[in-house]
């Protein structure tokens, strides 16, 4: 690390992280994003709904699951603005991850508030919808305020 007296900071060497995560059992989730849908799963054995999707129920361990689309209006139940970013997120401006409850769909979803939403507008109780997006050749999702909320 090198000390920079002008800014009073230590500058570390750049690092690159790359992960290869096997997702074949939940590939339908990524296909759904490419189709403009955010998918969760429901265990056919016990009825538990889960997001993010997983291949086996974390309650009863059944692998008999079905896909369901998260498409209603959700409500922000928790959020934070990330100013000091981890190494693999240094390229992003300040971002806001949130947990959103979709009562009609019966799931809570973790994701980012869309970067174009002013930080001062984000609050617990904000009504949002999910919007799948392709960024840098990969699919993701963001939360955007519903009409009249922004």
Overview features:
about 150 residues, mainly beta, five-stranded mixed barrel, three-stranded antiparallel sheet, 1 helix, globular
Tally of strands: 10
Return residue spans where pLDDT drops below 50 for at least 5 consecutive residues: none
- Spatial strand arrangement across the major sheet: 6-7-8-10-9
Q: How helix-rich are the residues, as a percent range?
A: under 10%
Q: Kindly report the oligomeric state of this protein.
A: single chain
Overall average pLDDT: 92
Q: What is the helix tally?
A: 1
Number of domains: 1
SS strand fraction: 35-45%
Q: What structural class results from the helix and strand content?
A: mainly beta
| Basic shape | globular
What is the terminal-to-terminal distance? 43 Å
Give me the strand/helix succession.
EEHEEEEEEEE
Outline the biggest β-sheet.
Answer: 5 strands, mixed, barrel
Please tell me how large the radius of gyration is.
Answer: 18 Å
